[in-house]
Design a protein that fits this description.
Pfam families: AWS, SET. This protein has 875 residues and is an alpha+beta fold. It has 30 helices and 21 strands. It starts with 7 loop residues before the first strand and ends in a 25-residue tail after the last helix. Bound molecules: S-adenosylmethionine (SAM).
Length: 875
């Protein structure tokens, strides 16, 4: 067994810190090198597997068998004990637990403590080893171990480079002084800066307290210089600093919207929502009167020049729009489980078709017009001579061939043959612009896509912005004659819901069934596009142009179909415009609109009347149903003889019952107690001479159902019955009123009397007229009318005087009714039931007497004197 020496050695085979095999009390005899004392160095690192396994090695060392297998150098192994490094590590941890760890996660401290200025492992540390030995003598101080500088050290070093001579002095005062010394000048501290400096100043060991923290370091990093911004001289710098925007055009003294030529969202501002109708208006409000180029090419020089003319206002608006452009915030976690609507910022929204979006079937895309059949021959014969425009060269930065260009007015596109201006200075070359765009062929250049709408089939959406009047796409298809078009409609398209026919010019029609995307453009009464014909190289072509407000990215393209409806049926319009005409119909001029409005009003009035009538009849039906009561069994066909029989029997039974009822008996008794007709005393009112006329009107309830049924069989009888009953009922119910009437002509009175009889089922009006110079009349005494509790009724004398009326036939005509009146009088005076007949004849008499004679009044004309049918109170 090897003995332990008080000397500690390090394996000579190691010369790095990683090699930390610590040998204690090397056995000299096994060493092979007698008398040579090993160098004693402390372990330098515990980050060494071999070291960690040293305990194991120790065991091995004690075991000669195992020792054979060990790979350690024989010199180091033989008869040596090692430190239990693990224990040492534990001890070290305990001693220096408050110290910081290095990047490897371990303390980074060695047994040579920096704080102790490199002092060797002290007694305290050695005590903690389980070796059970005491160092008797400390070896000489070893050379300082080289180690990697810590982060802290490196920061300090960096700081020292910055502030140079002030290194070592702590505090900002010293730093400022140093900076002054270096000629860096005084720097004003911002509040944020001073706060951070204060924090860094804390404690005597503030690591960063000597760093120079100027305002620049807190500010946002400066924008990256443009790659090409290698500024040669001041002039170039000036030029580069100017933004390169498309030129602004001044129209009517107002600036208009700026339309750029590149990018999906050119000309659109942040904050606008192309999916909302008000978006564009809002945008225009924000930027009133801003103008822009029409999207056709202008030179860079022009752009710079026009930009110079930008007012401060425009610049401010631009910078505002710029500042509005914010990044979309990241979703917060607590929003993930909530569903809510949000608007995607306009420049993130990409109107692109997605997988699975419905695509039109039965569509053959044809991007060029094709002449079909007859059309070809006629087409070639009808070539028109070319016109030439005389437009002057435009001023710098402007374009020529504007609104007053002859070619434009004549619907000709300018070409090198008919226009003297160079292409880039001419604004009337829409189709050539379109051709250039289509040649590029990118989705931005094509600029539209076909989408499925909710209620109008397919439609077309813009994938970019278009300036007002800018060409969007050509309407192409097969060019056919009118005859061929008719034939196709009759024979080929009978089962089609949509036609894609567009009149190109007189006699020619473009059938877009096989055509470009333009055929899918839907109608709107308030459209954002228009379709125009333009002759290009003498060939008429049809194209869709942006309307006067331009078109925004994502908007659906629409134009006014101005449909001529040949058939009676009109298609309902779903454009959703505020001023929608309601149908896919023709646009009307002012007069036509007026006429249409009038007709529409009339139609509405009639519809309202009809509706009211219907409502009334419904209400009547309802009322009748509720009035019928529980015994109502429904309608029966009166044509059915069985039913008729049954109804008659029922009616008879009812009448019998009524006759035998107590009420009937009471009424009969009352009737018997009345004085006989013709012998009744004069009512009080007759004694009173009254020069004024008085009219008493009784409102009568509607006829009962029974009466109605009876009425179907014998109208006149029903009327009479009704009248009699009415009179009786009216009085017994007390539902009455009377009104004082002014003097009125006797003819009117005659009318009233007639209406009393003829319209007896509705209202019964009995009129009393008293004239001083005439015979006494029978009337109700006022007291009787006003009395609440009426005395028992008695038949009263019905006196009717002769009625004379002014007719062309003279007195003969008036004599006729008087006969009937007499008859009625006698009838009435007998019994109440016979009175019905009498009244009927009276009615007839009146009717007859008025038939065929015009009523006139005059001093010599006979007067209608009196007509009274009344029941009065017996004295
Ligand atoms: C030239 S096509 C337009 C493309 C069509 N939506 C499609 O799916 O093929 C015309 C037809 O579209 C429909 N349409 C267009 N605009 C409409 C509107 N504003 N309201 C209702 N239907 C409309 C009508 O059926 C019309 O006959």
């Amino acid at each position: 067994m090897a003995t332990l020496s008080s000397n500690m050695t390090r394996s000579s085979s190691t010369d790095s810190s990683a090699l930390s095999n610590i040998l204690v009390g090397a056995a000299v005899e096994d060493d092979g090198v007698s008398g040579r004392m090993p160098l004693s160095t402390p372990p330098t690192s515990v980050n060494d597997n071999d070291s960690i396994d040293s305990a194991k090695s120790h065991v091995h060392a004690l075991n000669p068998v195992e020792e054979e297998t060990s790979r350690r150098p024989k010199r180091a192994r033989t008869g040596l004990s090692t430190y239990n490094v693990k224990s040492l590590l534990d001890a070290q941890e305990q001693a220096g637990s408050s110290r910081s760890r290095n990047a490897s996660g371990l303390t980074g401290r060695t047994l040579v403590d920096e704080e102790d200025d490199g002092a060797f492992l002290g007694k305290k540390d050695v005590d903690s080893t389980p070796m059970g030995w005491e160092p008797t003598e400390l070896p000489p101080r070893p050379a300082k171990v080289q180690r990697r500088p810590s982060v802290k050290d490196r920061v300090k070093k960096a700081a020292s480079k910055v502030v140079g001579s002030v290194l070592g002095k702590r505090g900002r005062d010293a730093m400022e002084a140093g900076k002054r010394k270096l000629g860096m000048g005084e720097v004003e501290e911002s509040p944020k800066q001073s706060k951070i400096l204060k924090e860094l100043d804390m404690g005597p060991k503030g690591v960063l307290d000597e760093l120079d923290l100027s305002d620049d370091e807190f500010a946002m990093p400066p924008p990256r210089p443009a790659k090409r911004a290698k500024i040669e001289d001041d002039d170039t710098a000036m030029k580069l600093s100017k933004p390169t925007a498309p030129p602004l055009k001044i129209y009517d003294g107002k600036r208009m919207k700026k339309w750029q030529r590149e990018g999906l969202y050119v000309g659109q501002n942040a904050g606008m929502d192309p999916t909302k109708k008000g978006g564009r208006k809002k945008l225009q409000k924000q930027r009133p009167g801003t103008a822009g180029s029409d999207g056709t090419g202008t030179s860079e020089a022009n752009e710079t020049q026009v930009d110079d003319s930008k007012t401060d206002d425009t610049k401010q608006t631009d910078s505002k729009a710029e500042s509005e452009r914010t990044f979309m915030t990241l979703p917060m976690f607590n929003y993930l489980d909530k569903t809510r609507d949000f608007t995607i910022p306009f420049d993130i929204y990409a109107p692109t078709l997605r997988k699975g979006d419905e695509k039109p079937k039965d569509w053959t895309k044809v991007n060029k017009n094709r002449l079909v059949g007859e059309a070809k021959e006629i087409w070639e014969r009808e070539k028109l001579p070319n016109s030439v425009c005389v437009c002057a060269s435009p001023a710098a930065g402007e374009q020529g061939c504007e609104e007053d260009c002859l070619n434009r007015i004549m619907q000709y596109e300018c070409t090198d043959d008919n226009c003297r201006l160079p292409a880039e200075a001419c604004s009337n070359r829409a189709f050539s612009e379109l051709a250039a765009r289509m040649k590029k062929g990118g989705s931005f250049d094509v600029g539209v896509e076909v989408i499925k709408t909710s209620n109008r089939g397919f439609g077309v959406r813009s994938c970019r912005t278009y300036s007002p009047g800018q060409i969007i796409m050509e309407y192409t298809g097969e060019i056919v004659t009118e005859g061929e078009c008719q034939r196709r409609m009759r024979e080929e398209y009978t089962d089609k819901q949509c036609y894609y026919l567009m009149e190109l010019e007189r006699g020619f029609i473009i059938d877009g069934t096989k055509g470009s995307r333009a055929r899918f453009i839907n109608h709107s009464c308030s459209p954002n596009c228009e379709v125009r014909m333009v002759r290009v190289d003498n060939t008429p072509r049809m194209a869709v142009f942006a309307g006067e407000n331009g078109v925004m990215t994502g908007e659906e393209l629409t134009y006014d179909y101005n449909f001529d409806n040949f058939g009676a049926s009109k298609q309902v319009c779903h454009c959703g415009a505020a001023d929608c005409r309601g149908f896919l119909s023709k646009r009307l001029n002012a007069n036509e609109r007026k006429k249409m409005a009038k007709e529409e009003n009339e139609r509405k009035r009639k519809a309202a009347e009809e509706a009211q009538k219907n409502a009334e009849s419904e209400a009547r039906k309802k009322r009748a149903q509720t009035d019928r009561g529980a015994n109502w069994r429904g309608w029966v066909a009166v044509d059915d003889p069985e039913t008729k029989e049954r109804l008659k029997a029922e009616k008879k039974e009812r009448e019998e019952n009524e006759k035998n009822s107590t009420r009937a008996k009471r009424l009969a008794a009352r009737r018997q107690s009345l004085p006989a007709a013709g012998t009744a005393e004069k009512p009080a009112v007759l004694k009173k001479k009254n020069s004024s006329r008085r009219k008493t009107t009784h409102l009568e309830p509607k006829p009962t159902e029974e009466e109605a049924i009876t009425g179907a069989e014998d109208t006149s009888l029903t009327k009479s019955t009704s009248l009699t009953n009415t009179e009786t009922r009216t009085i017994s119910n007390g539902s009455k009123f009377h009104e004082e009437l002014d003097d009125r002509p006797s003819t009117a009175l005659a009318h009233t009397s007639i209406s009393t009889i003829v319209r007896k089922t509705e209202v019964s009006i009995s009129t009393t007229e008293t004239q001083e110079d005439e015979a006494p009349l029978i009337d109700l005494a006022p007291s009787a009318i006003e009395t609440e509790q009426l005395a028992p009724l008695k038949p009263v004398n019905t006196t009717m005087t002769e009625i004379s009326r002014p007719t062309s036939q003279g007195t003969e005509a008036s004599a006729a009714p008087s006969k009937h009146v007499e008859a009625a009088k006698s009838g009435l005076s007998r019994t109440a039931s016979k009175g019905k007949e009498a009244l009927k004849s009276v009615g007839e008499a009146f009717k007859n007497s008025f038939r065929g004679g015009s009523v006139s009044s005059g001093s010599g004309a006979p007067k209608l004197k009196q007509s009274t049918l009344s029941f009065g109170k017996a004295n």
